[in-house]
Write a sequence for this structure.
């Protein structure tokens, strides 16, 4: 009985222990993955691996390129469906595939307005998120992790991150589903490996409509010279942008033409 | 997939079902049952007592003495849901694919077979359908001695009268869905064996022919766990200046999309455009949006909405840089299902297309195919789909704006009554 009381009092003490500040958790994560200086030295990343939906029998090679400015390009060569590409060069965020066609997702109002910094950069957290709050302790893969609620300053789409209590590594993210903002896409990050001076996850798994899919990297390279064309806007996307500009100009002209014109009344004689 | 399910299948064929095979069948039935319980978009499972269904299913699987009986038991259970897109795909269908992939050698150690050498049923090149109460030739390659509109009377000495009579009075969409395969399978056979047929022309004269069989048209396409299938597309220009595309499946986007793109972009000044989806049973659902992007100019238009237990997804069309803005006719029949219904119903609901033909199959549920432990495939619907006009396509289908049935008289003149109706409508549009 005594030991039970002791256990209960220990548990109560543990429960009352204040949770670390969200910024402390982020700083520890940055430190555990190599530290701010190490991340500052990373100018580019190129990742190659495998995208798979195991239950549906789908497997495809994936390549991701990213640079320190925040430009990204990703391509999945899906057997039976062709290339599925997505890119963001700061001025335009786009995607295209044979199945769905090309699409402009967002356009920047100022040059480089869509660039997003690496989440491992302290600057990223300071600039991009208006609010960081530690909300509690959860479990991921059976191990406790600190839950941090992350609210981006501009986008308002709240994200939930979970950082492993023991290792300090980011082990789970939950971000609003782009297909249905009322739902969140939960992704688990595993198999952190050392690349140069930083630690990077090599396995990411998630579930959509009951189907698990995963990205498994075979190789991650830092500071390689990236192919120059990967951040260029594809011609097909440029054509869509030109069409959009033309339609906007036409709409503005029509609006102008339809605006009621008031004739100044003749002054009374 | 590795070769062991195939080895088991061979063993079962030779000696009856092995104990391991029994365990795999049991695990497969269990997986089917739990998948439906956990993944069906309606947690109430369309009002079916699923626990009772489980008891019966597992008892039937325990009693089964063959893989076919296991499949029947699972199919009966799935049939309780009364919905489309719940099916078992026999593992045998995957055998050729596994050889083709070359990932593992064939069980006897032989090298994987190239596509041209695989065992495949061949056809005499023409197709029949039930038109005006007769098994009538509806398509035939140029130069063939078999002419459009001729009635097929017998195949290999066996008259078709009984088959035709059975389908004559069936409900229209049901008939259209099954009649083609029921009539045409008799023409299929080994490539090395010619087929003897008797046809009747428009004047009532009989023609007895012996025709060589050749591989069906189209190229093989594979997507995920879907068995490899032949996909073809036909594009042409109709008088007076109307673009026309017809394809048999929403699969193989590397073949279909560039062909549609070429036809659309070369037809920007055309008077109209026809997309012929008769007999097209669907395929990759989201491909409906990709093809629709050639015909929709305005952003934010959606064909419909998919709803699963955890997700709502709008089928929003992304307009292409070059779009065809003129009159658009879509041709459908009882063989048009799933993605075809999503495409046709959605474009009609946003007032972009006029639909011609007969009512579609009313089988439009988004689905996926997983592999079962016994090597079979299991297709299950994991979402419902509502067209942008508010109609649930499953069970309702798409009713054409203009109902037109094929006629033998038109075929004998070398015409297609449904295409003629669409051309006539386009010709009256400014």
């Amino acid at each position: 009985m005594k030991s039970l009381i002791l256990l209960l009092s220990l548990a109560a003490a543990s429960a009352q222990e204040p949770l670390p500040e969200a910024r402390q958790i982020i700083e520890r994560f940055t430190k555990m993955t190599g530290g701010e200086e190490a991340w500052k030295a990373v100018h580019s990343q190129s990742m190659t691996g495998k995208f798979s939906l195991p239950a549906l029998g789908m497997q495809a090679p994936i390549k991701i390129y990213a640079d320190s400015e925040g430009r990204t390009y990703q391509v999945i060569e899906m057997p039976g469906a062709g290339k599925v590409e997505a890119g963001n060069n700061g001025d335009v965020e786009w995607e295209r595939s044979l199945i769905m066609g090309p699409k402009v997702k967002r356009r920047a109002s100022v040059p480089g307005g869509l660039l997003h910094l690496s989440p491992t950069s302290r600057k990223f957290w300071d600039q991009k998120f208006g609010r960081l709050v530690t909300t509690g302790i959860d479990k991921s893969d059976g191990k406790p992790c600190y839950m941090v609620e992350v609210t981006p300053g501009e986008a308002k789409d709240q994200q939930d991150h979970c950082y492993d209590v023991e290792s300090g590594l980011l082990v789970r993210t939950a971000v609003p589903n782009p297909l249905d903002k009322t739902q969140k896409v939960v992704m688990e990050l595993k198999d952190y490996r050392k690349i140069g001076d930083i630690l990077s996850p090599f396995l990411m798994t998630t579930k959509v409509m009951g189907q698990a899919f995963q990205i498994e990297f075979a190789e991650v390279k830092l500071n390689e010279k990236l192919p120059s064309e990967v951040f260029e806007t594809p011609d097909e996307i440029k054509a869509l942008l030109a069409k959009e500009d033309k339609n906007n100009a036409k709409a503005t002209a029509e609006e102008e033409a339809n605006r009621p014109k008031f004739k100044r009344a003749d002054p009374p004689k | 997939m590795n070769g062991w399910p195939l080895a088991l299948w061979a063993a079962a064929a030779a000696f009856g079902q092995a104990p391991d095979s029994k365990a795999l069948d049991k695990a497969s039935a269990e997986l089917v049952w739990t998948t439906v319980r956990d993944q069906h978009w309606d947690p109430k499972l369309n009002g079916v007592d699923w626990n009772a269904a489980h008891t019966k299913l597992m008892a039937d699987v325990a009693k089964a003495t063959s893989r076919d009986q296991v499949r029947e038991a699972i199919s009966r259970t799935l049939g309780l849901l009364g919905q489309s897109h719940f099916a078992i795909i026999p593992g045998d269908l995957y055998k050729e694919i596994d050889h083709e992939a070359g990932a593992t050698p064939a069980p006897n150690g032989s090298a994987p077979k190239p596509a041209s050498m695989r065992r495949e049923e061949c056809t005499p090149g023409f197709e029949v359908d039930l038109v005006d109460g007769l098994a009538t030739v509806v398509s035939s390659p140029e130069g063939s001695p078999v002419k459009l509109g001729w009635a097929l009377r017998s195949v290999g000495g066996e008259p078709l009268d009984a088959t035709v009579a059975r389908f004559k009075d069936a409900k229209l969409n049901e008939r259209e869905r099954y009649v083609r395969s029921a009539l045409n399978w008799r023409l299929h056979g080994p490539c090395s064996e010619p087929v003897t047929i008797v046809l009747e022309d428009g004047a009532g004269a009989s023609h007895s022919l012996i025709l060589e069989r050749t591989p069906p048209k189209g190229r093989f396409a594979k997507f995920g766990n879907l068995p490899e299938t032949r996909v073809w597309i036909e594009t042409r220009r109709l008088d007076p200046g109307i673009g026309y595309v017809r394809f048999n499946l929403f699969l193989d986007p590397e073949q279909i999309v560039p062909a549609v793109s070429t036809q659309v972009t070369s037809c920007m000044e055309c008077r109209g455009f026809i997309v012929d989806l008769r007999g097209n049973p669907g395929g990759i659902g989201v491909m409906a949006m990709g093809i629709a992007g050639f015909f929709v100019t305005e952003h934010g238009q959606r064909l419909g909405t998919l709803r699963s237990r955890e997700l709502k997804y709008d089928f929003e069309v992304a307009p292409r840089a070059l779009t065809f803005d003129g009159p658009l006719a879509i041709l459908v029949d009882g063989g048009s299902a799933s993605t075809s219904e999503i495409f046709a119903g959605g474009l009609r609901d946003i007032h972009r297309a006029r639909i011609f033909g007969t009512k579609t199959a009313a089988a439009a549920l988004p689905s996926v195919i997983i592999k079962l432990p016994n090597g079979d495939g299991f297709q299950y619907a994991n979402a419902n789909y509502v067209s942008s006009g508010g109609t649930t396509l499953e069970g309702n289908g798409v009713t054409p704006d203009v109902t037109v049935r094929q006629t033998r008289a038109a075929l004998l003149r070398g015409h297609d009554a449904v295409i003629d109706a669409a051309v006539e409508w386009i010709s009256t549009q400014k």
Q: What stands out?
A: The longest strand of chain B covers residues 134-139.
